[in-house]
Design goal:
Helix content: over 70%
Oligomer: single chain
CATH superfamily of the largest domain: Nucleotidyltransferases  domain 2
Strand content: under 5%
Strand order of the largest sheet: 1-2
Radius of gyration: 24 Å
Number of helices: 10
Shape: elongated
Order of helices and strands: HEEHHHHHHHHH
Largest sheet: 2 strands, antiparallel
Number of strands: 2
CATH architecture of the largest domain: Up-down Bundle
Distance between the termini: 24 Å
Length: 218
């Protein structure tokens, strides 16, 4: 199961758990409060998910933490309901596609792994393998960045992706100039034209991808 589906599934589970809270009357009062164990388990899981998906400094996490602290050990409905609302808002934002940092971070880590492996292959004298890995990382990173910015490029060639990024002004300066030669190196690597690719070509692709990941996926 893809990580996005795991997160969506966990949001749905947390919403259902909140709906299943058992409320008990307070002695000598008409007020009710949620079962302490249920509430603490749910709140801990919710905070863990919000921090992992949105980050410790996000409004979702910080608002939840503030209301959770206010709820204390007596989880009255008036304290629990705002927490439920925050989780529902977080789920809506995530499923609606209004959060990109997690996807960018995960993508950056995956592409980074390809780059590390490409560098290792190059250092060990496996230029051709390094070229394929570096080219694959570059193409996937460019497509991921384009899609993140609303471009439909899943079926497009690398040259078309580069052109789309340029047209929307998403790359410029030195990156724009370097990208002009990258599709050619990528095509050589993917079509096994090894004699047309030198070690320096591979290093240039690796260097570009490293810089691209630092500026676009961190």
């Amino acid at each position: 199961m893809a990580i996005e589906e795991v997160i969506k599934k966990r949001f749905a589970e947390l919403e259902q758990l909140a709906r299943d809270f058992q409320y008990h009357p307070r002695h000598g009062s008409t007020a009710t409060y949620a079962d302490h164990t249920q509430f603490q388990q749910w709140a801990t899981s919710a905070m863990n998910l919000l921090e992992g998906v949105f980050g410790h400094d996000s409004p979702h996490y910080t608002n939840f933490a503030q209301f959770y602290k206010r709820a204390g050990t007596m989880a009255y409905p008036s304290n629990v309901q705002p927490l439920q609302g925050i989780v529902q808002a977080a789920r809506s934002d995530y499923e609606g596609g209004y959060l990109f940092s997690l996807k960018s971070q995960v993508s950056g880590e995956i592409f980074g792994d390809f780059v590390v492996l490409a560098k290792r292959c190059l250092d060990e004298g496996n230029k051709d393998t390094a070229a394929v890995l570096a080219a694959a990382a570059l193409e996937d990173a460019l497509k991921a960045y384009a899609e993140h910015n609303g471009l439909e490029v899943s079926e497009k060639s690398m040259q078309e992706v580069v052109n789309a990024l340029k047209a929307k002004g998403l790359v410029g300066g030195a990156q724009k100039s370097l990208l002009d030669v990258m599709p050619r190196i990528r095509d050589y690597a993917m079509h096994a034209n090894w004699e047309k690719i030198g070690a320096e070509d591979v290093r240039s692709v690796i260097g570009f991808v490293e810089q691209f990941l630092l500026t676009k996926f961190s």
